Amino acid sequence: MRQEEATIGQRTQNDSKLVKGIVVGGVIGGCLTLLDKNTRKQVSESASSMKDSSVAVITNVKENPTEVKDQILDQAKHATDILKTTIQEAKDLLGKIQSEVVVDAKDLSQEAKTLAEEAREDLKNVQADLIETGSQLTETEEKNSVETQRYM
């Protein structure tokens, strides 16, 4: 029991070290990246742009809360309608696949079964022909052997 507790304690300590290492690495990487003038400029512009966008959204919400609420509800309704339509189209496609493709597959399966049975019959015929030919060759060889012994 104590060994399990010690193992859990080690895992927690190792996880803590991992998290610290990731954070320190991120901070160092971020600092090194900011040494480049172009990167600093880009980060500054992005932060300023995000601040301006956030201020504009907050101002719009403060000035027109009902309008913003209605706009969000309209967007959600529109997204819901699109999702419902997509789901219905997927159901229709699934039904079409089940009705057409599965039936076609069953037909193909029956055709394959018929072809397999025909091939089996053909193989039986070929096998019988081979046996007959082998018997004839054996008989001919035996006759030739008897003929050859007569002349010797």
**How many strands appear in the DSSP assignment?**
0
Number of helices: 3
Helical residue percent band: over 70%
Shape: elongated
Mean pLDDT: 79
Number of domains: 2
- What is the structural class? mainly alpha
User: In percent terms, what proportion of residues is strand?
Assistant: under 5%
Radius of gyration, rounded? 41 Å
Separation of termini? 98 Å
The largest sheet, given as strand count, sense and whether it forms a barrel, is: none
**What's the SSE pattern?**
HHH
Q: Unreliable stretches, pLDDT < 50, 5 or more residues?
A: none
Features:
single chain; 152 residues; mainly alpha; 2 domains; 96% helix; 0% strand; elongated
How would you portray this structure in words?
This protein has 2 domains: 1-63; 65-152. The chain is an all-alpha fold. Helix 2 crosses helix 3 (65-151). Helix content is 96%, strand content 0%. Residues 102-136 form a coiled coil. Keywords: Coiled coil. It comes from Bacillus weihaiensis. This is YtxH domain-containing protein.
Secondary structure blueprint with pairings:
Blueprint lengths: L1 H32 L3 H27 L1 H87 L1
Protein name: YtxH domain-containing protein
Keywords: Coiled coil
What's the short version?
The protein has two domains: 1-63; 65-152. The mean pLDDT is 79. The protein has helices at 2-33, 37-63, 65-151.
